[in-house]
Amino acid sequence: MCSLHVEEEAHLAAMAGNRDRTLTCIELFDICWEDVLIPHMSIYLSLKDLFNLRCCSQTARRFAETALEKRQELHLSGNNTRNIDLGFQVVARCCRRLEVLHLACCKWLTDDLLLPLLTNNKHRLCAVNLNECVNITALSLQPIIVECKDLRILKLSKCQWLTTGAVDALTLHQSKLVEFDISHCGAIGERCLIIFFRKLNKLTVLSLAHTPSVTDQVLIQIGNYCRELEHINLMGCVAISDYGVHALTVHCLRLRTLQIRRCPRVTERSLAPLRQRRLYIDRPWQDNAYNAYNLNDFYPSDFLVYYALAKSCPRLQSLMVQRCPLVTERVLAPLRGRVHLDRPSMGYNLPASQHHRLFLQV
Question: Which CATH architecture has domain 192-298?
């Protein structure tokens, strides 16, 4: 309920006792706040309108702050005007029922400003957008991860402060996400993503664009566990190949959008069957690319060696992999000592070909 101050109660009591008062003397704030002004008028006022109204009088200030307390959505994406941090402190103090929070590209946003807002609204938030918020840290994610039990949408694109530890915490506490965006997040490991996607069986929208740790193994896990997926953005994921795309699309039968530009190892061999399903693919049809020279057709990769040989053939004694540019020490190192290899060791993390570097962890 909307609590009234002592002055307001006295003012309303004086109005009720004065029978001779005419209707022409009634002011805006004499109308019932809880039943009329807040639910039917304040919803049409923007955040700017409320702050302008807040400057008019003490009563207008209390009304604006009461309206902020009832507000369910806050949209400040891209707003970097002067002194906005001061206004945000007022919003963080007053807002108590926020469900949707959009703060993308807010360069002024820091942990000290964001944490009070999250603390006051953590039990109701269902959508949080922090894309390109470069001046906050993983500390701000703690109340979101642990306390926001109704969280459904989380966007953290270009947040370089997002670490493997934060994603591990998300794995433990958040399993109901339907939309997730970690594009351009280079600090996250492959193994972390594999474990994470095993928990997200309700995911429908996923963006992993330009995330170097996204490999075929990650796509296989997404296909196995995220069967409700409808839209996925894999633009710029250079480590994925036809194998991963095929494994993803075979299981995700509800998939409607596949963004696959700038993925040189993905060819029409995996995309052509998807076009027949009327799946939207952001890469145009390349007729000459179907039969073009493709390293996937002639050379085994780390992915194939690991799954086809290392895991399926426990009695393997000899492996000849010379002149296989896509097979690196990332998969050969665990085999050395128990399997004869015709290629000398080049260091565990040294890729055989810089043009086809894989981020495989075994």
Answer: Alpha-Beta Horseshoe (3.80)
